[in-house]
Amino acid sequence: MPVDIPRPEHRQLDYGVRLEWGREGAALLAAECAVVVVIDVLSFSTAVDVAVGRGAAVLPLRSAERDKAVPPDVVRAGPRRGPGPSLSPASLTGLPAGTRLALPSPNGATLCAAVAATGAVLLAGCLRNASAVAAAAQAAGGPVGIVPAGERWPDDTMRVAVEDALGAGAIAAALPGRSPEAELAAAQFAAARDRGLGEVLAATSSGRELRADGFAADVELAAALDTSTAVPRLRDGFLQAA
Q: Is-contact 149 107, C-beta < 8 A?
């Protein structure tokens, strides 16, 4: 996952907790951090938290690999409006323990699959498990890279997603040695928490989109700060309990 960064200042080398966005940020941080936390609040990392919290394991798939062959014991997630497990966190609240779930996603899963190739410890974080993931990241030792996934515009340029900034800020707020980028995300999170995370998340563009499509329950699940102690860590290709 090569990245051309001509100036060392962009690498936040003076700080133990660093933050950069999307694919490019994941490439930069994974090259130099001991642990990388991918955040995709609406909805991949929230879905992963719900699944792992129930004793399942998640195989992250790039959207382009949606139809990739998977082992016979792996359940393939279906469309969000379908009857079975999907990228909708609400569809996973009854997932049986021991399920191995292949979960495609254009943002969070894509970043996870890319970071996996670097050898960095990879965690999936969200608002629900922010404190637990922060503690696990700190315990891993070495610099922590926080990567809010964002989304992609139709021309494949990145769109900054407020909900991912809040998830990143919730994790950064629990860690010492923050870079200014991580510090400002923590400040955004604190402001949103004071206002009410559920209200803020529901009012974001992504939250409004999900609510309009009938997935208000997914937004509510995503806003449930620190209700989970699950720490999804990539091992043997699957995000599973650390």
A: yes
What is the C-alpha R_g of the chain?
16
Neighbouring C-beta atoms of residue 199, cutoff 10 Å? 11
Interatomic CA distance for residues 77 and 34, integer angstroms:
30
Residue 17 · residue 175 · CB < 8 Å: yes
Contact 108, 45 (CB under 8 A): yes
Q: Which two tokens stand for residue 135?
A: 């503690």
Q: Is there a cis peptide before residue 43, judged by omega within 30 degrees of 0? A: yes
Q: If you search the block for the tokens 């992609």, which residue do you land on?
A: 152
The whole-model pTM stands at: 0.95
The Cα 241–Cα 52 span in angstroms is 6
CB-CB neighbours of 23 under 10 Å: 20
The enclosing H or E element of 200 equals helix 197-203
C-alpha 121/C-alpha 59 separation (Å) is 16
pLDDT, one tens digit per residue, over 100-138 is: 999 999 999 999 988 988 889 999 999 999 999 999 999
Phi and psi dihedrals of 81, rounded to 5? -90, 5
Of the candidates 154, 164, 30, which has an alpha carbon nearest to the alpha carbon of residue 108? 164
Q: How many residues does the chain have?
A: 242
**Cα 4 from Cα 25, distance rounded (Å):** 11
